[in-house]
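Running log. JK asked me to keep both predictions on one page so they can be read side by side. First protein, sequence followed by its tokens:
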Amino acid sequence: MGSVFGRSFQVVTFGESHGPAVGVVIDAVPPGIPLDASVIQRELDRRRPGTSRFVSPRQELDQVEILSGVSQEKTLGSPIALLVRNKDARSSDYQAIRELIRPGHADYTYLKKYGLPPQSGGGRASGRETVGRVAAGAVAKALLGLHRTSIRAYTVAIGHVQANRVDTDFAETNPLRCADPDRAEEMAALVDRVRSENDSIGGVVEVVTDGVPAGLGDPVFHKLDGVLAGAMLSIGAVKGIEFGAGFAVTQMQGSEANDPISSQGFLSNNAGGILGGISTGQPIVMRLAVKPTASIAKPQKTVDIYGQDRTIEIKGRHDPCLCPRIAVVAEAMAALVLADALLQHISCSKGVP
């Protein structure tokens, strides 16, 4: 089911939403990187449910267990296995709809490809799978931190409400990860309204990486922006991505879209930190289109696994807006790509990480 990611810094995630546990195995992490459970736990706490009214109320502490690859708070160079046990799955919430195809979910495509009926909580297609990604991303961030590379993601739009400025420190304290203190209440009111209507809403998450050295990535088939795009689109709710000026370049002339260069460096960043598939050394800027949560209690038309017309109302515990938790997952995926690209780059040049 495509659970392996990366070429040098390679991860394999495992587990289902309502199984006993989820987790990840990470291979080719260099030895000697400072790492302990608290580093990983901090990232998992940022993603976990049950932290505000804007996320799923599922009560999971998401306590990480390091099974291998770390000793005396440093990586060994051997595979790192990380496990998080599921404690609050409620499969009974899905009994009434166990033969119904949920609109917007992977139920239909999994049935056609694998012959699998809908799994409780979405099974492998659930957002619960991203626990392993975030845990692995924490390890990747530890590696990137040695090179002064940092990654921040935050919400810049929910529905029609858009941020006009970015305050990353505020975003980290806001339950919607809204980057604009002046629009936070309006975003919250919108999410509250759609939730009261048994509905959900989408938004835009911006991801910015600072301190990325120039020269990461490969031209042609492994362009850095191409790999980042694939990583972001592998997140279930992400339906689009743009870099730098993004779709706005369609309304520019070349003289506007090009980033002038001086002896002091680039004078603008319409390219979003990548040219020819290789990092320029500027911040890499991405914006992600996040769809509304597919699980809603509002009645919807569907079919059952036998193809008969039905109506479905999805009960259970679901996020009214996915942006605040998608932001953390997006940071993790960016970290995995950049750690992989860094190790690829080092293997082709002198030096060690």
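And the second, directly underneath as requested:
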Amino acid sequence: MSNLSFIEPMPGSPWDTYLAQVDQVAPYLGPLARWIETLRRPKRALIVDIPIMLDDGRVAHFEGYRVQHNLSRGPGKGGVRFHPAVNLEEVMALAAWMTVKNAAVNLPYGGAKGGVRVDPATLSRQELERLTRRYTSEIGLIIGPDRDIPAPDVNTNAQIMAWMMDTYSANVGATVTGVVAGKPIPLGGSLGRVRATGRGVFLVAREAARRQGLALTDARVVVQGFGNVGSVAAELFAANGARVVAVQDHTGSIHNGNGVNLAALTAHVAETGGVAGFAGAEPLDNEQFWEVECEFLVPAALEGQLGEERAQRVRAKLVVEGANGPTTQSGDRVLHDRGIAVVPDVIANAGGVIVSYFEWVQDFSSFFWSEDEINARLERILLGAFEQICDTAAQLKIPLRTAAFVVACSRVLAAREQRGLYP
């Protein structure tokens, strides 16, 4: 049996991190370990050229990706990001983490992810629409409501999903609302979807804190990333008595030991595009941000942010991963050695995909639930999955991340074994 992966990973890349995580879980898989190569190889990786006409008449080309990591448990499910740093290794890792995430919360999905290497801030609205529609057409041969269901991710939103749904529908000659999740409500979107990931981060953090005997009242929270995930999680922490004392985004870092006024910060970000310059807090050096003393650290930006050096300086009692893959393998080891518990991304930020699943089900049935029903179902599924992961960690005496992979990979590989090989 070959130990080579789909492509040779760059050291320290997201794909390299994912492969190391698979290696760690192998000893706990029992007889299912014979199928472990399945986890090291994406089922399908599509690279597409996306030519569009710019507003000034020039033709520009962008590179896009859609990776389906594993489909043993159902159709692919995972977001689409528009970012200038997108590359194949990153999208492969994100797709693989979606395989693990969907299985960890026991959704009937495999893992997939997509992306376009572009800075959407440099495009007009018309150019962004052309890019989205051409990308959708290029990947249209492998997506569909029973094949692979994209959703929003970094720099994509409900409007992007609306364009994707419309383009796919036009190409197949029928309205297919279930081809994407995270759509606007009038087009078959689900109530509660926009806030679901941030809500899930808070719910899991609250449960992890209860298990550790940490009180939320007056607890200090440090949040990296103030987008859809970080801002909602911060708001829910504050609503439950905690103080958000430091925030960082792509524009800079801020600190207020008495707690940041989140409503004022949200208005400032909407006006200026970032947290830098917020009058209600002091500016903070971006590296000193990681040294702020707190009970909860929530990295909710991009992957690879919390490496070995930063992990040595973290002064948190609990790290709750709102982003995908924010902690590197070396950073994970340092935090473990220092006794700082990490609630991994594959359970901490699974709220979004759970409500995407609800949206998909509602689209198939054309019957929609109230937001209270959505939130109650989300909490039940997410906390039930977290309890199983905590029980596995205690039983096997392993970190929560390894336990999440044990639960998830066992489900994926059992499905692989039961389906068999064809031909």
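Observation for JK regarding the second prediction: Residues 371-396 form the longest helix (26 residues).
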